[in-house]
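Troubleshooting: if your tokenizer reports a length mismatch, compare your output against this known-good record of 341 residues.
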Amino acid sequence: MKLSDFYYELPESLIAQFPPEKRGDSRLLCLNGSTGKIEDDHFSSFIDRVNENDLLVFNNTKVMPARLYGQKQSGGKVEILIERLLDGSTALAHVRASKSPKPGSQILLDDGFILKVIDRKDSLFVLQSSEVDMMSVMAEAGHMPLPPYITREDGSDDESRYQTVYAEKTGAVAAPTAGLHFTDEMLQGLSDKGVRSVFVTLHVGAGTFQPVRVDNLDEHQMHEEYVELGQQVVDAVAETRKLGGRVIAIGTTSVRSLESAASSGTLQTYQGDTQLFIRPGFQFNVVDVMLTNFHLPESTLLMLVSAFAGYENIMQAYRHAVKHQYRFFSYGDAMWIEKRI
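Known-good structure output:
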């Protein structure tokens, strides 16, 4: 398949610029990948769709206030997006400026912090803070890194709403957005029902928003993202299989974590980067159901859900979502997708 196969028309008015007034007050489009059947529902019904022996797999990454503003020594304006921390004082970052800063130069942030440009690695820059650690710089001067399709400035509400209620391990520059729908009350309700939950960590990188630049998908190279998946997850999946339950991945990041750790055919513990590219033809080894938001045209995430539920089924579901005016992308509505068998 080619990149152009994954294009669809999306009115700009359907791109959610703000979260719903109340967390979890979203619509839920349900798709059966085996039959192609589509149902319109509300996210509050999620708890009714999950069975006692099912296992929910959440991504507990926490979004960093990774966007920084400042200027070069020459006075030119600079926008920085921290991609990942290399150590306490050093980070790998995207830098947007009229002219790229050179190694050895300094960037003066608007809040008075100074970052030194240490090196360049391909399109990214190695930046170092010599005064305080990089987390402190972001805590004081950073902004929530809202995705490029949200065309407004970040506000105080985004500090909590562009973060899952169970976020724990800091390191992402984008939220695992399927998890944004969950409230503490719903998580408690699922637990009271007897549904088990486990957590993986995948630190979502800015590369998740980078467009695929080749029409021949064989030539596309996925960006790297850091994954941690422990023995507790491996054991919980095995127990779920024994009980006849389903593994339900909350978000494409949980899907990529599980399937990266099961690339040998058997789920194992995993710690390190993944560049797993899931597209039609991929053999899923772990996930039975996924919850996800709607994804950009011609994106690798649209390819992932197409692999899971079938290309025609997904494209039909997206046409349905556009026709019925679902809200799209990070702050938008959700999909419940059962794997094509």
